[in-house]
Amino acid sequence: MKESFLHYIWQNKFFNQQNLKTNQGNSLFIKRTGILNTDSGPDFTNAQILIDNILWVGHIEIHKRSSDWYVHGHEKDPAYDNVILHVVYEDNMPIYNSNNSQIPTLELSKYIDKNILKTYNKLIKNKALLPCQNDLGKVDKMLLINFKYRLFTERLENKYLIIKKLLIETQNDWHQIFYETLLKYIGGSVNKEAFELMGRLLPYRIFIKYKDNLLKLEALLFGVAGLLNDDKTGAYYRLLQNEYRFLKNKHGLNELPPGAVKFHRLRPSNFPTIRLAQFARIYYQTDHLYEKLLNITDKEQAYDILSASASGYWDTHYNFDKQTKYKKKTTGTDFMNLILINVVIPLKFAYQQHLGTYNNEKLIDLIESIPPEKNKIVSIFNKINLPARNALDSQAILQLNKEYCSKIKCLSCDVGHFILKKGLKNEY
Length: 428
Fold this sequence. Notes:
Layout: H1 3-12, E1 28-32, E2 35-36, E3 44-51, E4 54-65, H2 68-71, E5 83-90, E6 105-107, H3 114-124, H4 141-170, H5 174-186, H6 188-201, H7 204-207, H8 214-224, H9 235-251, H10 272-285, H11 289-294, H12 299-306, E7 317-319, E8 322-323, H13 333-355, H14 360-368, H15 376-383, H16 391-405, H17 414-422
Parallel strand pairs: 4-5, 5-6
Antiparallel strand pairs: 1-3, 2-3, 3-4, 7-8
Helix pairs in contact: 3-17, 4-13, 4-16, 5-6, 5-13, 8-9, 8-10, 12-13
């Protein structure tokens, strides 16, 4: 049993509160359980209890065993002198504060419903990706819907925290942040980190100087990616090399280390060469790219902006000097949806939060119009009765898996809370 479970039981009063007694034999009534303290000091602050009908106001400390009080050194710490009740699962000894005053103790094991213990242990010991999958059918449908929206908002807020750090680093340069984030997600799961670093090695302020010259944009991207350091003979490759050498010297650019950009385990259409060429084309063909994407109201507007073909050389290539059958390398719908979900919508959310103009309904309408993502996690959840019907659902599933299920944080999860409450034999 984790101490956090005892916090959960205390905070929600999931125990029999009739005829409570301290282990000193005094009657006990709980008026307020207090406020959970996530910093140092007692676990719950500003609690109110009645001991033998006398009101006590102060803090609550919770442990699995009474002796943990001494294990943690609380008897020497004046910060714990205002503890009015020691709540434990097992009372194995009396405890005293730094003034040598004995602190009343409540032994929860006498009052906890054994059914909730059984349900809790079943959840935390389940090794499945979704520990509660066998109990999902019992969960209220409206609760699942509301929790889904909360998870989506949580995911956006987590991304906003990353963007806020970037705002400090870039001195509020939204164009740099958008450019860097777009590069990151164009890299896909394999080249995400490498492409994100490229956005710093090749800053937006330098890249955008050459917006009207596609060859220079490509030369900058391929060069900083470390893809122009070989001795290849093709005319296009040589032209890119010459352009990059000049621009590198002019702007003092550095490149990614050898091997940082990977081709292994990628479909040819996702090769970094193709993605960088498409990235160059997107900026080349669209003026005020960031502003236009920030102001879209539906996915079709985004598709019009993000639909781009790599330059002509790539119609017959996936890599330099290796000719292939003709195929236009155009950004597909799945790719554009990925950018919408991971770049455009989070930045719209962040910018609106920054200005204090957040419009929840419009952002939700946009994300719900996009098909769900296709990945391993979403696929598994689809099979265990938690299907993703749109991108909001799939983002909620990813948040649920990352922040709750994989960390076994059932006590913080709305679904886990519902199942645990259902496990109670009696409502308290």
